[in-house]
Structures are given as structure tokens and as C-alpha cells.
UniProtKB/TrEMBL annotation:
Protein name: Cytochrome c domain-containing protein
Signal peptide: 1-19
Origin species: Steroidobacter gossypii
Keyword Transmembrane: no
Domain Cytochrome c positions: 34-140
Keywords: Heme, Iron, Metal-binding, Signal
InterPro entries: Cyt_c-like_dom
Domain of life, per lineage: Bacteria
Length: 283
């Protein structure tokens, strides 16, 4: 397959921008500060040459449009096997199936909802679309981490993707996304392993007035593991929330070598992963 030249890539840089106004591009339409290069059908290439330089000015943070954050470290978990907000029956990226991927439908103008992307800009060159299609057809692998980095991982760490620690999230938030830096034994997931609690209005979680919010945990990807934790009660009430994933006895989430996660990031196995965030008052 012929890869897109960088000139074709430049038009891709407004792929998920809010208004297709060229923010993040120089006067020639290239990502500001980027050297010329060739877009490859890999996630790292798309992240480095498209999402980071041109899209994160808008698609970043808890208020990202339609919950789609494209920051490095967050974008993969919110694209691959992630339901589209506009058409929940379709995944934003369906590995192995470009035609069923909502991302492709949006940039090709075949989506049943909303406008073609990039918004208020000419359609992407087919060569650019073909590169993105090829990455999806290849299974949409995550190539953002190097092999040498993975060999240095001693214990699995969890990372909050959306919302991040102490962020404010909108009441319309449908899921909490957590990713790992390695593959987890997701067969260990069970109802008492992941808990979500809401403060009783005082922002505290040891006063005895907290309430548990029932959740459903979905495994979105495995290498590395991505967990989508869906509250069964929506919209969430405005308050402080605490998500806890057990890394301690009697049941602990562990990697494939049966080593418990380093939930508290102290360099040793064990310890719960705790994420606290705020849900805003609905507007």
C-alpha cells in the first residue's frame, strides 16, 4: 500500500479538531514545530504526527468534545474498542474492520450522524485515509511503547486516563477509563475488586456517609490492558468520587505472572489503586 506523504498528512491534522480552523499548524498547513516525514500505518506515527501537534489543543482534558481525549497516553484507550458517543453501536476504532470503525466513517463522510471530518475543511486525501485504514485493518495495535521499556516493568501500574486524578468531570460522563502499562489477568476482575464510592457531600471518604455506586467493568483491550468502568447510575450526582481497584488481599488484580499490581506506585507489589475525581453540577 502506498503510504501518504507528509503533505497529505497535513490535512489529517484537523481530523478531530473542533472546528477545522488549522490550530496547531504553520502557514503551510504543517504541524507547527514538526520536521517533515512520512505517515506510517502505526499508532505511534498517527499519534506523533497527527494527534499531538494538531489535535490536543482541543481534544484534551476532561472537557474534550464527546469525551474524546487525544493526549499521548490517553488517546489509544479512548479510540480502540471505544463506543462512539454519536452512534454507540459502533466503535470509534474496530480492530481489523475499518469499514465498521466510526472514525473512518467520519473522515470518509459516510457516517449517519454529524458532519464529515475534518469540519469546515476539504476532505482528507484518500492516501491519508488509506494509512489510517491500514492501521485498523492490521488490528489497530498499540505501538506507543518500546520493547526495551516493557522489559523494565517490575510490577503492573495502573494509569487513570479519563478522568485523571483530581479532575472535574461532566455529569454526562459515561465511563471511567483506566489503562495498565502491561497485560493484566483480567479473569480476576469481579464485583468486589473494583468499587466506586460517592462522598456524602462532604468530600470525605471516612465519615461513614459514603455510598457505593454499582459499576460494570469491561475489558477494552489486553496488550496493554484497558478497563472501561461504567457506572450503572447515570447521570452521576455532583459530588466527590473515589474509584478503588484492589491490589491487596483478599483479592488483588494481578499481571499474567500472578504478581499483584503496584497500585500505590511505591515500587513494590500490592496496594490499592485509588482515583479521586469530582463530578460537576449539571448545566
Amino acid at each position: 500500500m502506498k503510504l501518504a506523504s507528509f503533505s497529505a498528512l497535513c490535512m489529517t491534522c484537523t481530523l478531530v479538531a473542533c472546528a477545522g480552523d488549522g490550530e496547531g499548524l504553520d502557514e503551510n498547513g504543517r504541524p507547527a514545530g514538526e520536521d517533515s516525514g512520512t505517515l506510517q500505518p502505526t499508532f505511534q506515527s498517527i499519534q506523533s504526527l497527527v494527534f499531538t501537534p494538531a489535535c490536543t489543543g482541543c481534544h484534551a482534558g476532561a472537557a474534550a468534545p464527546l469525551g474524546l481525549r487525544l493526549d499521548e497516553g490517553a488517546s489509544y484507550a479512548l479510540l480502540v474498542n471505544a463506543p462512539s458517543v454519536e452512534v454507540p453501536a459502533l466503535m470509534r476504532v474496530q480492530p481489523g474492520n475499518p469499514d465498521a470503525s466510526y472514525l473512518i466513517q467520519k473522515i470518509e463522510g459516510t457516517a449517519a450522524v454529524g458532519a464529515r471530518m475534518p469540519l469546515n475543511a476539504p476532505p482528507l486525501p484518500q492516501a491519508t485515509v488509506d494509512v489510517i485504514r491500514q492501521w485498523i485493518a492490521d488490528g489497530a495495535p498499540n505501538t506507543s511503547g518500546g520493547g526495551s521499556q516493557k522489559t523494565r516493568i517490575e510490577f503492573a501500574h495502573l494509569i487513570a486516563v479519563s478522568p485523571m486524578r483530581f479532575e472535574s468531570a461532566p455529569a454526562s460522563m459515561r465511563e471511567i477509563v483506566v489503562t495498565s502499562d502491561t497485560e493484566l489477568d483480567t479473569s480476576l476482575l469481579q464485583s468486589d475488586l473494583v468499587t466506586l464510592r460517592v462522598s456524602g457531600g462532604d468530600g470525605e471518604f471516612a465519615a461513614g456517609n459514603e455510598r457505593t455506586v454499582p459499576v460494570q467493568v469491561r475489558v477494552r483491550s489486553t496488550q496493554p490492558s484497558v478497563l472501561a468502568i461504567e457506572p450503572r447510575v447515570t447521570p452521576l450526582a455532583a459530588d466527590e468520587y473515589e474509584l478503588r481497584i484492589s491490589g491487596s488481599d483478599p483479592v488483588a488484580l494481578a499481571d499474567l505472572a500472578a504478581r499483584p499490581i503496584d497500585g500505590d506506585h511505591d515500587g513494590t507489589a500490592g496496594g490499592d489503586f485509588v482515583l479521586r475525581f469530582t463530578v460537576e453540577t449539571a448545566r
